[in-house]
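Tutorial handout. Part one gives the primary structure; part two gives the three-dimensional structure as tokens.
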Amino acid sequence: MPSRRLFAFIPAVVLLGCLRWTQPIGAEEPSAWKKHVINHRSPFEAVGVADIDRDGKPDVFCGDSWYAAPTWTRHRVRDVPPGTNPHYHEDFADAPLDVNGDGRTDIVTCAYFSRRIGWVEQPTDPAQPWTEHTIDLPGSMETAYLVDLYGDQTPVLVPNVGGQVLLYELASRSPAATWTTRRLAAEGAGHGIGHGDINRDGRLDLITPMGWYEQPANRSDEWTFHPEFNLGTASIGILGHDFDGDGDTDVVWGMGHDFGLHWLKQSTDAGGTRIWRKGEDIDTSFSQVHTLHLADFDGDGQMEFVTGKRIYAHPSEPGATAEPCLFIFRYDRSASKWERQIVHRGDPAPAAPLDPEQRDAQKDFRAGSAGTGLQMAIHDIDADGDLDIVAPGKSGLYWFENPRIPATP
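Part two.
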């Protein structure tokens, strides 16, 4: 079946090497990934990668600025205020997309406190600030992402809106950018959203903490909700992928405000009814698992996923001051178990105040501490043929260079 990808997310690349996997989880070798600092003082939790200045190099957009590769010169292009809770800024998504079809990359964004979805237009004159356009005011949102949901290159924004399940389709680019809104039945709404082809019919379905929505064959028909599981306060995204290679789609998610990274294995009973069985816990050693991204990091044709600790998702939560981390997880199909590779592991916050309201990631964690925010970006930043990781968060903005260890002849 045709593959579908996140817009401006994973480019087509030729992967020429493989990474070294170690096991068991908790006994890994030190990370071979190289950390590069883009802005260690950036407090924003969203990120996108695209060629902003059209010079052929991938740049990074985060919060109020874009950073020009390869020197990461900062260009501040808009104001992003703190939310009514000063632990957060009003930038919960940064999805690159040429919204108005003028050949320049814009940014689709959302905000929690102002309850706003919008897009930020790149001007013709690079010396001018970017222009904000409101798409909708649906409610408080954890984050949002763009996906080719229908497989026809139509950009669809999938926000995680409290109490609602909404889709925003870019209907036209000119003479003015217009978006159409699709509202699904609210029974599946919760903290977390993702996608995958659950029933293997060639169409992407939506996955929520309460079950999954089946994409109809006719786009104008209703999406059928299947309340087949309850994941709790889940990550964004929730991953739908055949990890164990048995021919059906499994579900992987993290606990956004607690410890735990888990998966459900799909199968059928004797009568052919779909059933879900919780697999062994993938990892319960870190908390605040908010963002998961699926990609082939080692070039073996099998998908892995990267995730990590969202630094101060809530400063008062269990594990909030523990060491920040980024990990890649791979399912070893021959051994039927998960393997973990360390991308980055930092130190606990040595200076964190006992009062959570007084905590500040920029002060509490050592300089250079990297975890995740609400998004990461997966892209071949250095154009060497493998996929790198750009990780924003309250403790700074970093990119991690894939070590690209050559395969054994």
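Part three, for discussion. Confidence is low (pLDDT under 50) at residues 1-18. The chain is about 0% helix and 35% strand.
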